[in-house]
Amino acid sequence: MTLQYGQILQYLPDFLLGALMALWIAGLAFAGGLLIGLFGAAALTYGAWPLRAAVTAYVRFFTYTPQLVQIFFLFFALPEAGIILSPITAVLIGMTLNAGAYLTEIERAGFTSVPQAELDAAETLGFSRLQTIWYVIAPHVVRALYPALSSHYIIMTLGTSMAAIFGVEELTGRALNANAISFRSVEIFSVVAVMYIVLTIIASTLLWLVGRWLFRVKAKVF
C-alpha cells in the first residue's frame, strides 16, 4: 500500500473549519453545562429535599446512560412528540445536559471545600444565599476545580466526534465526507488524528494560560 498524502492537502482547509466547529460545539455545550452544574451543585448542597431529589435523578440519568444514546433519544424520539430538532441542536442539547450532570458532581465537591470562615463573613456582611453563591462560593469553586473543569472541556472537545453520526460537519464529519470521495482512509484519519492532538495541545495551553492569569491556578489542566 502506497500512502499518498499529497491528495489530502486539498481537504486541509475543510478540516480546519471542522476543527473550529468542534471547538465551538464543545465550548457552547461546556458553558451551558457549567451553569447547569453550578445551579445543580447549589441545589444539592442547599436545596430542599424535593429539589435535591429532582437534581439527583437528573444526574443519575445522564451519568448512568451513554451520551450517544441520550443524543439518539433527542434526535429520534422527540419527533414522535412533535418536537423536531436539527442535528446540531440535538447534539448541543445532548452534550450540554450530559456535561451539566457531570459538572454538578464536580462543582458540588468544590462547594463543600469552601472555608467556613468565608461563609461566616458573607453572612456577617448580610449577603443573601444567591449573593453568597455568586460572590463567595463560585469564585472559590472555579479556582479549586479549574484543572478538573478544563480537563472536562478537553474531553468534550474530543467527544464532538460523535456528532458526525448525526451528519454534523465537525472535524470527523468532514473527514468522513472526504473519505467517501477519495477512499484514502489511512491518510485522512491519520491527518485527523494529528489534528485532534494539536487541538488538545492548543486548548490545554490556552486553558493553562487563562487559569494562570485570571484565577492564579498553576496546575496543568490536562
Structure, explained:
- Helices cover 77% and strands 0% of the residues.
- It is an all-alpha fold and 222 residues long.
- Helix 1 runs antiparallel to helix 7, helix 2 crosses helix 4 and helix 4 crosses helix 6.
- The longest helix has 35 residues.
- The radius of gyration is 21 Å and the shape is flat.
Quick structural summary:
With 222 residues, the protein is mostly helical. Helices cover 77% and strands 0% of the residues.
Strands, helices and their partners?
Elements: H1 12-46, H2 49-64, H3 67-77, H4 87-112, H5 116-124, H6 129-159, H7 171-182, H8 185-215
Flag low-confidence runs: none
Main sheet specs: none
Q: Can you count the helices?
A: 8
Mean pLDDT: 88
The span between the termini is 36 Å
Rg, please? 21 Å
User: What's the shape?
Assistant: flat
Percent strand:
under 5%
Helix content: over 70%
Classify the secondary structure makeup into a structural class.
mainly alpha
How many beta-strand elements?
Answer: 0
SSE order, as H and E? HHHHHHHH
